[in-house]
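Postdoc handover notes: sequence design on the structure in folder B. Input tokens:
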């Protein structure tokens, strides 16, 4: 993945943060059933950190041994999926990066379990959040407690 070679990210609540330095070797999507369940989604978007400098800069994930060969890291405070750790290397959840748009997937794995409707998503009707008239009142009351998409000097935040 050519371009800027410094990345940061973390969990939704900010208890766990990380930094990556180096050329990211691969960003992918895994459709296997184990990844679907681990991410609670249709697939797992993962970014390999094999061969780059990777460090936890705040906190550290808890782990679940999802198989005899793989363990998965997550934030014990908010539950955000963070890592896929296998004998051949570690991958980090793409959505945990502060700028996931910099890491588009280049490959798909586990396609035997790919859900059949994924190919039709682009054809679905789409609405921007601010255009969802039915949710206007709800959104006007919504206060996010999500950590911002950048490093902060303190955690938890000084005031909420």
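Designed sequence:
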């Amino acid at each position: 993945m050519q371009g800027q070679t410094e990345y940061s990210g973390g969990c939704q609540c900010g208890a766990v943060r990380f930094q990556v330095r180096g050329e990211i070797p691969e960003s992918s999507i895994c459709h296997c059933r184990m990844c679907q369940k681990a991410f609670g989604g249709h697939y797992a978007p993962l970014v390999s950190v094999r061969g780059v400098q990777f460090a936890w800069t705040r906190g550290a994930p808890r782990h679940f041994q999802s198989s005899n060969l793989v363990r998965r890291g997550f934030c014990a405070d908010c539950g955000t999926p963070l890592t896929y750790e296998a004998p051949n290397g570690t991958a980090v959840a793409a959505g945990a990066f502060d700028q996931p748009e910099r890491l588009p997937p280049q490959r798909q794995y586990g396609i035997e379990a790919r859900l059949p409707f994924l190919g039709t998503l682009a054809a679905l009707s789409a609405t921007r959040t601010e255009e969802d008239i039915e949710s206007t009142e709800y959104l006007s009351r919504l206060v996010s407690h999500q950590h911002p998409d950048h490093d902060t000097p303190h955690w938890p935040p000084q005031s909420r």
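Context for whoever picks this up: The mean pLDDT is 91. Don't rerun without checking with the PI first.
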